[in-house]
Design a protein that fits this description.
- The protein is α/β, with parallel strands linked by helices and about 220 residues long.
- It is about 35% helix and about 30% strand.
- It has seven helices and ten strands.
- Strands 6-7-8-3-9-10 form a six-stranded mixed sheet, with helices on both faces.
- Strand 1 and strand 2 form a beta hairpin.
- Helix 3 runs parallel beside helix 5, helix 4 crosses helix 5 and helix 5 runs parallel beside helix 6.
- The longest helix has 16 residues.
- It starts with a strand and ends with a strand.
């Protein structure tokens, strides 16, 4: 099985400062990968580099057969359509229902058939147990429910990779555990999941590869 993410001696900068260096990383389809590290350790920058939000300063980086260093800007939307992103603060549009949040994404990514859109939205909402809450506005949902909608949104275009950046950061422990369980199940169905967190407790309950960001380096922990 080939690697869908391959970084070789990558260096990342933010505002002229080195945030990560000598990053070597190979990730295969369907793996569940933790990025552990303190706030400011480079986890988010590393994830953002995977969808071309943070440029690769030096080294070689290939994601889903795209060479990030030489990729034309016009290719970035195609790369991002193969990825789902889950944020700590949910980032739902507050002026529309949960259902309309998902519909907006499908329309923005080129779907046109109303029946197909309705079927896809129903499927992802059912997968995260939120079909009965689809008519609610984000402010009417709990944090855990909003994050489930965000996971459903990330799954809409059948992504090959899901990037979850501190997805449990704003949730209570029990709700956070349910969200990680959901992401773990998604990886078992064949989608690669990379989750940034500073909560080491998840690792024993939901096993996966563990990569640590510290001292601007990425180190794989052997379990």
């Amino acid at each position: 099985m080939g690697n869908i993410i391959e970084y070789t001696d990558v260096e990342l900068h933010r505002k002229d400062l080195v945030v990560m260096k000598h990053v070597n990383l190979q990730i295969q389809e369907g793996q569940f990968v933790y990025l552990l590290g303190k706030v400011g350790s480079g986890k988010s920058s590393l994830m953002k580099s995977m969808y071309a939000e943070v440029p690769i300063f030096s080294g070689s980086a290939c994601v889903l057969d795209n060479q990030l260093v030489s990729m034309k800007r016009s290719r970035i939307p195609y790369l991002r359509r193969q990825m789902g992103i889950v944020f700590q603060d949910f980032q739902l549009l507050h002026d529309r229902t949960a259902y309309s949040n998902l519909l907006f994404v499908l329309q923005a990514t080129g779907w046109t058939d109303k029946t197909e859109m309705a079927e896809r939205i129903e499927k992802v909402l059912r997968n995260v147990g939120m079909l009965n809450k689809s008519y609610k506005m984000p402010h009417e949902l709990s944090g855990g429910e909003q994050q489930r909608i965000a996971i459903a949104r990330a799954m809409l275009n059948n992504p090959r990779i899901i990037l979850a950046d501190e997805p449990t950061g704003n949730l209570d422990p029990a709700t956070g555990e349910a969200i990680v369980s959901q992401l773990h199940a998604i990886s078992r169905s064949g989608t690669t999941v990379i989750m940034a967190t500073h909560n080491h407790g998840f690792v024993s309950r939901f096993p996966g590869r563990v990569m640590k960001c510290e001292n601007k380096q990425l180190i794989e922990e052997s379990l």
